[in-house]
Amino acid sequence: MYTRTLLCLLPLICLNGVLSKGRVRKFPPNFLFGASTAAYQIEGGWNEDGKGQSIWDVATHQRPTPIKDGSTGDIAADSYHMYKRDVAMMAELGLDFYRFSISWPRILPNGFADKVNQAGVDYYLNLIEEMEKRNITPFATMYHWDLPQNLQKLGGWTNPHIIDWFADYAKILFDRIGPKVKLWITINEPKQICYEGYGSDAKAPFLNATGIAEYLCAKNVLLAHAKAYRLYNEHYKKIQNGSVGISISCTWYEAASDSNDDFHAAEDARMFDWGQFAHPIFSKAGDFPEQVRRNVASKSAEQGFPRSRLPKLSTKDVATIKGTSDFFGVNTYTTKLAYRDASLDGMYAVPSYMDDMSAVLVKDPTWPQSQSSWLQEVPWGFTKVLKEIKKLYNNPPVYVTENGWSSDGGLLDDDRISYLRHYLGALLDAYSEGCDIRGYTAWSLMDNFEWKSGYTEKFGLYEVDFSSPDRTRTPRKSAFVYKEVIRSRKMDPNYEPNYVVETVEHGTKDDDDNDVF
Ligand code: NOJ
Hints:
Elements: E1 2-7, E2 12-13, E3 25-26, E4 32-36, H1 39-42, H2 55-61, H3 79-93, E5 97-101, H4 104-107, H5 118-133, E6 137-143, H6 149-152, H7 162-176, E7 183-188, H8 190-197, H9 213-235, H10 237-240, E8 243-249, E9 252-255, H11 260-282, H12 290-302, H13 315-321, E10 328-331, E11 335-339, H14 353-357, E12 360-362, H15 379-392, E13 398-402, H16 414-432, E14 437-443, E15 462-464, E16 473-475, H17 477-488, E17 490-491, E18 495-496, E19 499-504, H18 511-514
Parallel strand pairs: 4-5, 4-14, 5-6, 6-7, 7-8, 8-10, 9-11, 10-13, 13-14
Antiparallel strand pairs: 1-19, 2-18, 3-17, 11-12, 15-16
The structure holds 1-deoxynojirimycin (NOJ).
1-deoxynojirimycin (NOJ) binds next to loops.
């Protein structure tokens, strides 16, 4: 038994006033639409053509496995071989750009710049060439979590030498791929790299050195980013004429009550979660946010540490990091409530990032829940994130570099459509309040390996059949809704593609029927 999709040629617009769900809203001229993926999550080809091992290769091959369904990214969506199909999907959707990431160990198998794997470079050049044929702009991320294992052996992001190692890697990318790329992101989601990977055990390398390693990592990530940015600015920008930014995950934390305490809990949560990385780069003063410096220093003193566990940024570091981004890449998905509880006894490890933050973060059970426990639909939180960035950082150009919804599968994804519409509406609300938003990126183009959750959470506009050897990709209903948004440059809440999912029993697959675009 399998399912197939049929799309009538003429999309039906629901004209019934009773069913009307709101007004049609226009996107600004020159606004760009894209979709995003990341190397480890889609490529597969984990040991092909000279690629080295990443921390995720090592983690997923461990037994017992830390991955929920025991899966790996060894093959994933097989984009290493199927990239032409991926580009065809981008064209079907009408994307302006595609945000993908480059696998560091595919380019530098040992992490160091002494040995470049030309086959790895060629893979990305071929992908970009295919995109050029369809007029789709490449938006390339240099680091989306697949650190070469060889560098992890030396401490990975906790070793300050990584600042140079990352800049060496960036130089190779600028030299060999830079002539084809105008939009670069250095690093994807520093907080998740540092806190989840080093300060807890939610992501590889699962170091769990709480309250220490996440802050060592934070300083190194910021300086590595800054070094790569400055390298581009000084040596490449004139010739290649591109922009370089960073993608920071920005969850909105709303005070759980009107109390002063909860107001401060929410503010501290935002400052620990994303201010920690945004402030040093985008604020006028630079450096880590005051709340973060103060909380970590006072907790460290109470705990008997001779100095703050948060490493100091010297005056020179502050100056080096400040201003190193041509745009603010916002990855944003959800909102949480924050409150202050006088006694955090036993709630968090001591020392730890969460204990330093001293806020309790909870979900509101009335908000729509996705397949990912952490992800609920709260569109007004998205507007608040964008307005806060405008307020705190002098209205920088913003690309929303990730936003999306997870389900447990299926082609009829009305929940994803509702999320997409509401979040696009929330983005337009922020735009109408003066936020300088240049583009929107749906996460994700297709289903992929969702880190510790394996393949149990589906984020794709395209479904991927992970049981088929050719990893068949099928557009979900949301793909047609997004396609219409892009085509019309409008968000019409009443637009209904005439999308039918048929279940065919004991049939042979008819590719023509599936080729719906
Ligand atoms: C952000 C990460 O960048 C991406 O890798 C992940 O799959 C999505 N969030 C969804 O969790």
